[in-house]
Amino acid sequence: MIGERTVRSNARLVVMLAYEGANLIDICGPLQTFSSATRLMGNRCTRPYVGTVASLAGGLVTTAPGLAIMTQSLAGLDCHAIDTLIVPGGSPQGAPVIVPELVAWITRRACAARRVASVCTGAFMLAATGLLDRKRVTTHWSWAERLAELHPKVRVDPDPIFIKEGKMWTSAGVTAGIDLALAQIAEDFGHHVALATARQLVMFIKRPGGQSQFSVPLASQLSEGEGFTGLHAWIADHLSGDLRVERLARQAGMSPRTFARLYKARVGRTPAKTVEAMRLEAACRALEESAAPIKRIATQVGYGDEQNLWRMFQRHLGVSPTEYRARFSSAADG
Predict the structure, then answer these.
(1) What are phi and psi of 50, to 5 degrees?
(2) Active-site residue numbers?
(3) Residue 77 — φ and ψ, nearest 5°?
(4) CA separation for the pair 50, 13 (Å, rounded)
(5) In a domain, 157, yes or no
(6) Same-domain status, 66 and 186
(7) Pairwise CA distance, residues 50 & 4, whole Å
(8) Is 333 within the bounds of a domain?
(9) Distance between CA atoms of 54 and 75, rounded to whole angstroms?
């Protein structure tokens, strides 16, 4: 519940909506991020974040994983100015939840809020208000096509982790709500505070790439029983070595032709594409986490020389290794 300190301290009120079946991490992830930022700033913060979770009637609301959370009623917010309003996602019955009463409440209160945001499939609830019409938005990649079908006036982009269009913010699925909150903290208090918060949460201040660039080892193991989990672990440990198809086939105990055919069929990409992506991911990690010379990193991850690494970064990420390090290294904040 919101106390009198909210008004007295001129705090930034962050209202997270809740409903039966909402994704728990969509709710707690952003709220924890705002709370961590406020705690890190301490007495230096003249306008701290104060978060609350609100539902139609208040009381206990059961989230998607089964954990019930205590909420206050929407009516209890009538006398409070909302700084940031966030709609979480949730699809407990195999479809995004749309609560007409919440849609009406959002429509009524959004105009006075400084910013309005959605996490994951919360974009469906936000789109139902009409507030996203003619705006570029994102949602979880697996729901982007459906969002575009239901709301043709909304310009859906399935790749970004989050998008800001004026006062409207939308983000991709699950943990992307944390990325969104970090960006909003940076907007309010600057990059330094957002970076310190990200470090506290053991998060990127800004993730490289979009939704299409999720972890290569995990992506390669999505298919149950595809049989190459051990090989992928071996590749990750031998990135600087010979990883041509012939060597991989020998490691897998197959002929090169059989290996190449089975790998493509089961994993959905060629062995060479997996090796390339794993080397790129390892190079990104090294640039983010170490001060090692770029030439040494290129050798360690199997690119041979700096020029090969440079070409790979330009092709996949659109930046040079030097630019990437400046943006994403833990030392970038100086």
Answers:
(1) -125, 120
(2) 120
(3) -100, 0
(4) 5
(5) yes
(6) yes
(7) 11
(8) no
(9) 9
Same domain, 15 and 150: yes
Q: Torsions phi, psi of 164, nearest 5?
A: -110, 125
Is the distance from CB of 179 to CB of 207 less than 8 angstroms?
Answer: yes
pLDDT at res. 223: 43
Total number of domains constituting the chain: 2
Q: Are residues 147 and 226 in the same domain?
A: no
- Cα distances (angstroms) measured from residue 298 to each of 244, 276, 289: 17, 12, 15
**Which strands, in side-by-side order, build the sheet including 115-119?**
59-62, 68-73, 49-55, 12-17, 84-87, 115-119, 168-171, 162-165
55, 61 contact by CB (below 8 A): yes
Domain shared by 235 and 123, yes or no: no
Whether residues 33 and 170 fall in one domain: yes
Which residues, other chains included, contact 234 with Cβ-Cβ below 8 Å and sequence gap of 6+? 251
* Structural domain boundaries enclosing 38: 5-211
Of 154, 181, 211, at which residue does a domain stop? 211
Which of 211, 231, 248 is the last residue in one of the domains?
A: 211
What CATH number does residue 75 fall under?
A: 3.40.50.880
Q: Give the pLDDT confidence of 115-140 residue by residue, as tens digits.
A: 999 999 999 999 999 999 999 999 99
Residue 253 — φ and ψ, nearest 5°?
Answer: 75, 35
Shared domain for 82 and 110, answered yes or no, is: yes
The β-bridge relationship of strands 115-119 and 49-55 is: unpaired
Q: At what angle do helices 176-189 and 24-41 cross, to 10 degrees?
A: 30
Residue with tokens 């006398």: 79
DSSP three-state, residue 151: coil
Q: What is the per-residue pLDDT across 201-219, written as a single tens digit (0 to 9) for each?
A: 877 666 655 554 444 444 4
CA 211 – CA 158 distance, rounded (Å): 7
CB contact at 8 A, 142 and 181: no
In the predicted structure, residue 55 carries a pLDDT above the cut 50:
yes
